[in-house]
Structure formats: C-alpha cells, structure tokens
Give the backbone structure.
Amino acid sequence: MYVKPKKNLGQHFLKDLSIARRIAELLSGHGTYRNVLEIGPGTGVLTQFLLPQTAYSVKVVEIDHESVVYLRETVPALQNRIIEGDFLNLKPDYFGDEPFAVIGNFPYNISSQIFFRILDIRDRVPEVVCMLQREVAQRIASGPGNKDYGILSVLLQAWYDIRYEFTVEPEVFNPPPKVHSGVITLRRNAVAQLACDERKFTQVVKAGFNQRRKTLRNALKPLGLTEAAADSRFMDKRAEQLSVADFVHLTTLMEGGKGGEG
Ligand SMILES: C[S@@+](CC[C@H](N)C(=O)[O-])C[C@H]1O[C@@H](n2cnc3c(N)ncnc32)[C@H](O)[C@@H]1O
C-alpha cells in the first residue's frame, strides 16, 4: 500500500530516518508530561520513533483518511491512538485533563494557525517539538530588531523558551518542498504567568504588529492610550523594536497601572 502525497494537505513525507529519529529524541519531558500528541503522522515515519519511548503515551491526529487507513494497517500499536480529523478543530481533551507535548512535521501551509491554536491551550502544552518552513521557524525564534520578528515571535516567546535546533534540506522529503525546513523546540517558561493581563497583552502585541510600519503611538490609538502609556519611551518606536519584557511593561501602562519608566 502506498499513500500518494497530497499537495493541498501539505504532505511531504520524510524519507531520512535519521532525521526522524533526531526530531523524536528532542522530546525532553520538560514540565513532566506523559502524553504526546503528534500532529500529521502521515505514513508514520516520525511516529515509529515515538512509540518505543515507553516514558510517553502517544496519540496522533491526522486529517487524511488514506494516511489513517495506512497507519491502521501498518502500525498495529497505534490502533486506538489515532484521531482522524483536523487538529485545528479538535477540543483539547484527547488526554483528559492531563498536560501533553505536541510534536510533528507540521503541514507548512497551516503552521501559523497551529501555533495560534497551541497558544490558546498553552497551559496544557509544556513542550512543542516541530519541523516547519525554515523562515517561519527562524521568525518564531528571532528577537527584536529582526525583520522576521512578529506577532507569533512575541506571543510564543512570552510563554515559551524557544530554540532553533537544526536545518533540514528539501531532498530528504517525498516530494521535496520548494523551501528548506527548520526544527525548533518550545519549552514552557518557568514563569507561569506574565506580570500583566494576558488578554490585554495579546491585544497590544497584535495591534502593534498589525500596523508594524506605524509608531506605537498611532498603531495603539484604537485601543485607547492612557496618559502613562502616551508619555512612555515606547510611543515613538515600532512594534518590531520591542522585546517581550517591553510589551509587558507597555501593557501595564495601557492598563493604567503603575508600570513606571524602568
Ligand atoms: C509534512 S507532512 C508530515 C508527514 C509525516 N509526519 C512525515 O514526517 O513524513 C504533514 C502531515 O499533516 C497532515 N495534515 C495536514 N493538515 C492537517 C490538519 N489540519 N490536522 C491534522 N493533520 C493534518 C497531512 O495529511 C500530512 O500527513
């Protein structure tokens, strides 16, 4: 049996087993989870290196029916652990109330949406190990002042410590994608909560970057500027110049709190 790769589902199957093994071995147990969810197992190239890791209980979510049939036939150990469906539409109760790590060679066309979904459920996801388009991986891991720095970089870095692990050449996939790939790991910060209102923080970051060519004074006007925020040292800067800590500080000023000018 053979699964013909489908372009619309971002299917590029990994051929190089040593890379699959390397990715699987990046799971560290950070945050002491037992459960692991693989997004998009395809034909199970990565899955085969997850299942023998007895410290973990593995489930997979796959949208492609043909891949699901293939997995059921070729990987008997997965039988009751396959969720057929769209990760973006699932309720996160695959493991009851328990935390779980997310791993996968993500479908590149929806990798940002996957991360926004992970952000929604971040309190349940202590670790993420994934491969995605190299530029997106670099953007997520990059700091202020970099042209790639954006909403996802700030939001993910606010809650996760992120490492760019290694680059993967197109030739190791069937079919080869047009782009290079990058593997990153995200581990939940020791600080469980930001020192500001998390919803407001997200609003400020999104508003700042949605108009990234404007100064923050103009980009944040629709949210209403408090006097303290308007007087702050941030207002003549652009979002891409602010660190996560700066955004936290700015959020406290936008809330009318005593953020000061530290
Ligand atoms: C880049 S392939 C990786 C396949 C396999 N893990 C590998 O490394 O060879 C991405 C996989 O994600 C699946 N996929 C695409 N969209 C999905 C979604 N919304 N939810 C779950 N799986 C999805 C595709 O069918 C495909 O199997």
